[in-house]
Prior knowledge:
By secondary structure, the protein is of the alpha+beta class.
Amino acid sequence: MRAARISAGVSAGLAAVALGALWIRRNLLVTTVNGRSMEPTLRAGDRLLVRRTDRVRAGRIVVVRAPDPPLGDREPAGAELTEEEAAALPVVPAAAPPPGGRLLVKRAVAVPGDPVPRDAVPALREVPDEVVPPGSLVVLGDNPSASWDSREYGFVRPGGCVGVAVRRLRL
């Protein structure tokens, strides 16, 4: 009789641990910063605890899915430029887009309902929206010279936000 109670207690304890582990896996993520785009706030190798959510406030550090570059690695047909046309192009930051499917750590600067920050984000200067659309975000790296962010690709579209950084982990 006593062994049956102990066995039931152990089973209940294991079930609670399994449910807790499942909750943690569904709601939290640990990610490592790679690159210089968030310096000086975050450095390469910093680890972040991230709460999985798409509810974001402006100013928060977020983890988003990297959008695919619009043209991949190919140049569009007829994109050959003269030297004068090439010299007139704006200087592009040294940051290159990561391959699609990777995660980016950035700062949310505008969330749904906020005015579109056209002055700070060249890729959004011609969008017809006056405010950031539902489910979308505008994200920037803290180090603009080393960041591939909304300045190049525009909005992070609905479903692109993985979560919000809760804290830096000290290991």
